Amino acid sequence: MKSTLKKLWKLFGIVFILAVIILAIYIMINGLGLVDGLDFGAGAYYYADIPQFAKYVNGEHFTSAFPMWVHIALFLLWGAAMYKLWTWIDKS
């Protein structure tokens, strides 16, 4: 039983990784998510290079029923959970 479950998880992991790689290639080939007029090549990853970048991260565009501290707390909790997961994976 345990061996079968391990095999299923391994198969699921391989299928998942392949799906992610295929989707990433599809996104890159079709240029999904790109903003016309903001093609900076490799520099697009350095947001300081984008003219008037502040208008793209203006806080007025983000609305939520929760205060900002809740979002920050959830972000930090997610980071802590991922740290725990990776340390557990590293040990095993």
Write structural notes for this entry.
The chain has two helices and no strands. It has 92 residues and is mainly alpha-helical. The mean pLDDT is 82.
Unreliable stretches: none
Gyration radius, in Å: 20 Å
Number of H/I helices: 2
The percent range for helix content is 55-70%
Kindly state the mean pLDDT as a whole number?
Answer: 82
State the total count of DSSP E strands. Answer: 0
Helix and strand run? HH
Strand content: under 5%
Q: In one word, what is the shape?
A: flat
Which structural class matches the secondary elements?
mainly alpha
Q: CA-to-CA gap between the ends?
A: 20 Å
Largest sheet, if any? none
In short:
The chain is mainly α and 92 residues long. Helices cover 58% and strands 0% of the residues.
What's the helix and strand layout?
Layout lengths: L1 H29 L37 H24 L1
Key terms:
92 residues; mainly alpha; 2 helices; 58% helix
